[in-house]
Specification:
The complex is a heterodimer of chains A (about 550) and B (about 375). Chain A has about 550 residues and is of the alpha+beta class. Chain A has 14 helices and 24 strands. In chain A, about 35% of the residues lie in helices and about 25% in strands. In chain A, strand 14 (about 335-340) and strand 15 form a beta hairpin. Helices cover about 60% and strands about 5% of the residues of chain B. Classes of the chains: A alpha+beta (about 550), B alpha/beta (about 375).
Chain lengths: ~550, ~375
């Protein structure tokens, strides 16, 4: 209980009727029994029938009557205590907060504060917040992937969760089929294609073309073809909208929204919201579609630049390994090829080389060199001549880059493999002998594409069954790293590693060297690295499982 | 991989015959063992998981025990690879895909392709459309694959614990494009706790349980929140991992110099012996790094225990590891988490030496990374 002194002080501050008369808020005073004692002009203007002496119930809405009764009850219980507040309700079309304060003789003075605008603003704010959150989340989800199918599924699912009961995303046709993603009530979308004519749906064909721009439009649900209505959509369709997804130059597709007959039609602000969502979905879808197109193009152009998959050719095992300088690249300035001889008895030509520079620019030139060399395969017995022709072709091209390479003519006779090797400015090939020696093949020559005249010395050597000749690029030996961080992998280390590879299949030799070099690098930067192993298969157990040469040389 | 425990006598017989063929580097005979078994009615999954996989596990174990050379080990893997490839084309095992699409890949710099390869084949047999991306897939390649071809799930394999940070990068990148990740392989620990720590959506101890999990479905990651890598491992905020990993060459150099000061025999090492020692020190720093990354001491102490075991097997006294830890501790005295790890390492090592030699325990794939010592 409050001390008496304060009680007296509080009494002295109580306002008189004269004070609240001109107050800008409606004020009414009622006694304990609910009879109006006083009404200020603002209150009189607001409340019809509010005059001193009138019962409260006739002048004010029921929520305020209940508030008064409650306040009186509480005041009786706790003399001088704080007044409860937080009463609110509607008077006519407006919304009010009602604040009671203690008047004389147990009267209650009601101050009514119009909060209609604030409440509207709050409601709008909450809706806008919800939408912003949704749009932000939708952007996160939509922009995460550049996969067009996934974008379509996500768009349909989000739309069916927030905009309508069912959503269908239709992408521009590929051939006669329409790619389509369907979602109902926020469940995971299904993706597939339908063979259907978009002209069956009003506005669909135009929207799918992406240009000229068409507004989203309402269509008569009765006109919807059955293929457009999801199987698990309950009840008849009440309203349907066709909204184009803006694709910024690329047709991104169309969003079809369906609501059942029972639910509310679209309001104007919902349409604005749907457009905002469509803009995001469209941007994501068109980015995904552009990415797909670009990666298609890249794949096609790159197909011939990728290092080939090597296997056994005419009784000789070939294995290759390639690591481009940058992890994101697939091609670079190193290259290798194996061109089988025209007939089984003819020699094959293996090539491994390195164009100065890395990345795509270098890769383009490797393509040119590889094509030229392939055309020169028939003269595989005369390496010097091949190199002279290649040199001429490179000097006459607009490329200013030069290249180093090794040519290997490979012929199997009985169990041995005869090699003719020529280096053109390239690290010499290494041969792993069965007795554990690692021999360097003593071939030397000028690099190609720089000087008008070139020279080269071809060296012959034989591989006994189980022996391997390794061609490699300097990316391997110049890999910088190791435990101390700045040492070159170097030829000596390569030789030591190869000495441990006696009798290993060529593919295993390549993999082992690749692994050692990359562990040496330890995430460090490196140049392109390429390796080709040419192996004379061991005689007693030839490969039986690589397909076309099954059992051919099994002695 | 599967164990031999439940193997029937028939399967055990096949294992022994395949082992003999693989050790003789006889690809033809190896293929014959598997193909005859398939033609006699063994199903392909059994051939892969109960015949080929255990034989490969045995190859690894024999190498750890220094009973197989590196050439034999590589030859054995190459033979297994080719037999698996041939098996995939066998008409008796071809399956039309009827389930979803799965990308199977090894973490960047992960060269142990076999576990992933086996999983890819098993999933194909069970009706998934599998894109097998192979060994050491750089994360940008994995992600561009997901953008281009899409996938319902990624199965990510890693055997070497030091690749866990790379695995983390791959896991979060896949999830960021909305594709859930199933992690597997020895790197994630025998109970998968590292997979959970890195936020993988699922983890499986072997190919069969992986297939089961995938069939039950794995929930798609929630993208709305925009999760970041650091959210999984808030301790990375102290930057210790980055600083220690970045100064690896200096640390190795310092430890090497001090070892040579303390032990005259170390000063007399040949260039090659010196390099092996440097490599071993570098591995210790690597494991210290990954223990800092995961904030898990067991990664570091486990590696030390295992290394001590391998050293003993190669007749190098395990106590030679202790001065390495001492020098590292002095060098890293300003790093509280590193200091703690080095202390733990030291006490584990001491206990081990007192108890009279470490138990090598199960081999795992750490060994292929561990180049050993003067005379190995």
């Amino acid at each position: 209980m409050a001390p008496p002194k304060e009680h007296i002080a509080a009494k002295a501050r109580r306002p008189s009727a004269a004070q609240w008369g001109p107050a800008p808020y409606p004020v009414i005073v009622a006694d304990r029994s609910g009879t109006l004692i006083d009404v200020n002009p603002a209150a009189a203007a607001l409340l019809e029938g509010a005059a001193p002496g009138a019962p409260l119930a006739r002048a004010v809405p029921s929520w305020l009557v209940r508030a008064h009764e409650e306040t009186v009850r509480e005041a009786a219980g706790q003399e001088g205590g704080p007044q409860r507040s937080g009463f609110r309700g509607e008077i006519g079309a407006l919304s009010f907060e009602a604040h009671p304060s203690r008047g004389l003789e147990g009267h209650v003075v009601w101050w009514l504060v119009d909060d209609t605008d604030r409440r509207l603003a709050e409601e709008q704010l909450a809706t806008e917040r919800q939408r912003t959150t949704f749009l932000a989340e939708a952007s996160n989800v939509l922009l995460a992937s550049l996969n067009a199918d996934r974008c379509m599924r996500v768009t349909a699912q989000l739309a069916s969760q927030h905009l309508a009961e069912a959503a269908i995303v239709i992408a521009p046709a590929s051939g006669r089929k329409l790619p389509m993603a369907v979602a109902v009530e926020g469940r995971a979308a299904t993706h597939g294609t339908v063979t259907a004519d978009p002209a069956e749906v009003p506005g669909l064909s135009e929207a799918l073309q992406g240009f000229p721009p068409v507004p989203s439009r309402w269509i008569d649900p009765g006109l919807l073809p059955t293929w457009l209505i999801p199987e698990d959509f309950t009840g008849p369709v009440g309203s349907a909208a066709v909204t184009p997804l803006p694709g910024h130059g690329v047709p991104a597709g169309v969003l079809v929204l369906l609501r059942s007959a029972g639910s509310a039609e679209f309001k104007e602000h919902e349409e604005v919201f749907a457009r905002l969502f469509a803009a995001r979905a469209g941007a994501a879808l068109s980015a995904a579609r552009l990415y797909a197109e670009q990666s298609d193009i890249t794949r096609t152009l790159m197909r011939d630049l990728l290092p080939p998959q090597l296997s056994r050719v005419n009784g000789v095992e070939f294995a290759g390994g390639y690591q481009p300088a940058a992890a994101r690249d697939r091609v670079g300035g190193d290259f290798y090829d194996v061109h089988p001889g025209g007939a089984p008895g003819e020699p094959s030509l293996a090539v491994l080389g390195d164009v100065c520079g890395k990345g795509l620019d270098a890769a383009v030139l490797t393509g040119k060199i590889r094509n030229t060399l392939q055309a020169l395969t028939p003269m595989a017995d005369d390496h010097e001549r091949m190199l002279r022709l290649l040199n001429g072709a490179l000097l006459n091209s607009h490329h200013t880059r030069f290249a180093t390479l090794v040519l290997a003519t490979v012929r199997r006779t009985e169990h041995r493999v005869r090699l003719r090797l020529t280096s053109a400015g390239h690290p010499a090939p290494l041969v792993i002998r069965n007795d554990g020696r690692v021999e360097e093949v003593d071939t030397q020559g000028t690099l190609v594409g720089a000087l008008p005249h070139i020279e080269a010395r071809t060296v012959e050597t034989d591989l006994q069954p189980g022996e391997t000749c390794l061609l490699y690029t300097d990316g391997v030996t110049e890999a910088r790293g190791g435990p101390l961080g700045d040492e070159l992998f170097g030829e000596e280390r390569l030789r030591r590693a190869l000495a441990e590879c006696v009798g290993m299949p060529g593919a295993a030799v390549v993999e082992r060297i690749q692994m050692l070099a990359s562990q040496w690098l330890h995430d460090g930067r490196h140049d392109d690295m390429a390796l080709v192993a040419i192996t004379a298969p061991p005689t007693n157990h030839l490969s039986a499982v690589d397909g076309h040469t099954r059992g051919r040389y099994t002695a | 991989m599967t164990s031999h425990v439940s193997a029937t006598p028939l399967v055990r017989g096949l294992q022994d015959r395949l082992w003999t063929a693989v050790i003789a580097r006889d690809e033809h005979a190896a293929a014959e063992v598997v193909f005859t078994a398939i033609e006699n009615g063994i199903d392909a999954e059994t051939a892969l998981l109960d015949v080929i996989a255990p034989v490969q596990a045995r190859v690894g174990a024999e190498w750890a025990a220094n009973r197989l050379g590196v050439a034999q080990e590589h030859a054995a893997s190459a033979i297994a690879e080719r037999v698996i490839a041939a098996l995939a084309h066998h008409p008796a095992v071809r399956t039309a895909p009827r389930l979803g699409r799965i990308a199977v890949a090894c973490v960047d710099q992960e060269w142990h392709v076999l576990p992933a390869r086996l999983l890819a084949e098993v999933l194909t047999l069970r009706g998934w459309q599998v894109d097998f991306l192979g060994a050491q897939v750089p994360t940008p390649h994995l992600i561009s694959h997901l953008h281009t071809y899409g996938a319902d799930m990624v199965a990510l394999s890693s055997s070497i614990p030091t690749r866990l940070p790379a695995a983390h990068a791959a896991i979060t990148a896949c999830q960021a494009v909305g594709v859930p990740v199933l992690a597997g392989g020895a790197a994630f620990a025998s109970d998968g706790r590292y997979a959970r720590l890195l936020g993988a959506d699922a983890w499986a101890p072997d190919a069969r349980s992986a297939a089961r999990l995938l069939e039950d479905g794995i929930e798609t990651p929630v993208l709305t929140a925009g999760r970041q890598q650091i959210d999984d491992l808030p301790h990375l905020g102290d930057q210790e991992y980055t600083l220690v990993v970045r100064s690896r060459p200096q640390l190795v150099r310092e430890v090497l110099a001090q070892l040579e000061n303390r032990f005259p025999e170390a000063a007399a090492y040949t260039e090659q012996q010196r390099e092996h020692t440097a490599q071993d020190i570098a591995h210790i720093v690597d494991y210290l790094g990954v223990a800092l990354y995961m904030d898990d001491a067991e990664l570091f102490t486990g590696f030390l225990t295992w290394t001590a075991g391998v050293l003993e097997a190669r007749r190098v006294p395990g106590r030679s590891l202790r001065p390495v830890l001492d020098v590292l501790k002095a060098e890293l005295k300003d790093f509280p988490r590193s200091t703690l790890l080095l202390d733990r390492g030291r006490s584990v090592l001491d206990a081990l030496l007192v108890s009279g030699g470490p138990d090598t325990g199960d081999s795992d794939d750490r060994l292929s990374q561990f180049a050993l010592h003067p005379d190995s």
